[in-house]
Amino acid sequence: MKTKNQIETTPGIASRRNLNARTFFPLLAVIGAAGTLLAAFAFGQSAKEIRGATPYVEIENEPPPMLIVDPPLTNLLAQGIVWIQWRVENVRILPVFGKGALNVSPRVGHFHICVDDLPWLWADASNLNTIDIAGMPPGPHKVRIDLADANHQVFPGQSKTVTFTVTGTGPHRH
Questions:
Q1: I need a surface site. Which of 20, 131, 145, 148 has the fewest CB within 10 A?
Q2: What whole-number distance in Å separates Cα of residue 124 and Cα of residue 136?
Q3: CA distance 114 to 128
Q4: pLDDT per position as a tens digit, 50-64
Q5: SS3 of the chain
Q6: What residues contact residue 172 under an 8 Å CB cut-off, 6+ apart?
């Protein structure tokens, strides 16, 4: 067992005896940084500000939905794999469809995705935050992403088109 004197002089043990300017000021900086971090959490944005309104309460006068789309990630674009990240505001992407679902609060919707103006499209209600298209041939392409309501009507002004070029020698197959 250590004596009081041995404990006080053991490196790393803060005591009145070895707490000098060399150890005190770095300790003060750590305490200050921790306090700042705690204050940021304590006085940061609320859960509602970050995650949106609770689904348990009907939202009166919902603001219009908004679609935000990023350019495709370049990671595998040369190989014909296109990843387009997106986010929405004031609408939840869910697999809920039909005229009756138009009155749901908070509002629900999904995407219609069209590639290179082809006469067909697909609906996506997965809420995965990334549209994933594989096997795109070399050359210029465009993808139109429409934010649609539960009855397949595009919300006014919520259609985004992303253009890109696949530079590789051919599509990548999985």
A1: 20
A2: 19
A3: 18
A4: 887 787 888 888 899
A5: CCCHHHHHHCCCCCCCCCCCHHHHHHHHHHHHHHHHHHHHHHCCCCHHHHHCCCCCCCCCCCCCCEEEECCCCCCCHHHCCEEEEEEEECCEECCCCCHHHHHCCCCEEEEEEEECCCCCCEEECCCCCEEEECCCCCEEEEEEEEEEECCCCEEEEEEEEEEEEECCCCCCCC
A6: 76, 79, 80, 81, 134, 135
And the tokens for 81?
A: 């794999």
Q: Specify the amino acid at residue 107.
A: R
Tokens of 83: 């990843």
Evaluate if pTM is beyond 0.85: no
* pLDDT for 145: 98
Give the Cα separation of 29 and 24 in Å (integer): 9
At residue 13 the predicted structure's pLDDT band, cuts being 50, 70 and 90, is very low
